[in-house]
């Protein structure tokens, strides 16, 4: 239908979800989660069609390609932990960050664009499950609003843990994408780090750890994407019949 791309017409107001991954090259699960998001969004799934009609997704699937190519665990070609340089990235030393940050600031300054979500995908070497880090705000109402998306994701994804999700302003994390952009963007934008375990997630009791597979990481990505349907209350627009919905906890 002609209305399908209404949000992409020149001058149309756009709600943008910005997703980045693999700023730390050793965190390979983040690429599989990101792949799951991308594959779902470009699919013919009825939910994906509704999301494409209402939202604009900008995705940078690999922020540290030189580090990945070299097999580094955390740093770029020149030995920088890129996720500590968001505040003042150099076009020479941190080119991917510089480019992404310029794009985000351009969108932020465009009155026709509402940058509503920034999600940076990582993998965690000690915790289990998927979980999120968010920011701490003085404004209690804004703080509560920020908790909505991870709570909805917890209902959609059996491997996502809201109880492991935390909100902090640790000085060590000040140069991360989530912290820097959380301070830059206005109070209708939400900035998160999405973490997923390198090895397993818990189902049921504390002894029932299930090893992650590439497919399970991609499934988490699909569930992240479909959570936007719940967040924006677009469920009534999805054509029936739907596939089986994931079990809620």
From TrEMBL:
CDD domains attached to this UniProt entry: M14_AGBL4_like
Assigned keywords, A-Z: Carboxypeptidase, Hydrolase, Protease
Pfam family, any one: Peptidase_M14
GO terms (BP aspect): proteolysis
SUPFAM superfamilies for this protein: Zn-dependent exopeptidases
Family, as annotated: Belongs to the peptidase M14 family.
Name assigned to this protein: CBPC6 carboxypeptidase
Organism (species): Hemiprocne comata
Gene giving rise to this polypeptide: Agbl4_0
């Amino acid at each position: 239908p002609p209305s399908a791309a209404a949000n992409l017409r020149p001058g149309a107001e756009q709600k943008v979800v910005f997703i980045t991954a693999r700023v730390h090259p050793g965190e390979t699960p983040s690429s599989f989660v990101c792949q799951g998001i991308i594959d779902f969004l470009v699919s013919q799934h009825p939910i994906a069609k509704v999301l494409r009609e209402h939202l604009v997704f900008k995705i940078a699937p690999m922020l540290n390609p030189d580090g990945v190519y070299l097999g580094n665990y955390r740093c770029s070609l020149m030995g920088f932990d890129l996720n500590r340089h968001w505040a003042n990235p150099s076009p020479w030393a941190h080119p991917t960050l510089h480019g992404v940050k310029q794009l985000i600031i351009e969108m932020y300054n465009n009155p026709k664009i509402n940058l509503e979500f920034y999600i940076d995908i990582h993998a965690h070497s000690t915790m289990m499950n998927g979980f999120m880090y968010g920011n701490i705000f003085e404004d209690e109402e804004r703080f509560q609003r920020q908790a909505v998306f991870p709570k909805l994701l917890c209902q959609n994804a059996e491997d996502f843990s809201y109880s492991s999700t935390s909100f902090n302003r640790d000085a060590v994390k000040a140069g991360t994408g989530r912290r820097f952009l959380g301070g830059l963007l206005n109070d209708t934008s939400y900035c998160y780090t999405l973490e997923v375990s390198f090895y397993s997630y818990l189902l049921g009791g504390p002894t029932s750890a299930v090893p992650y597979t590439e497919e399970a990481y991609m499934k988490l990505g699909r569930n992240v994407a479909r959570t936007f349907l719940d967040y924006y209350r677009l469920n009534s627009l999805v054509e029936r019949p739907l596939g089986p919905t994931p079990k809620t906890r």
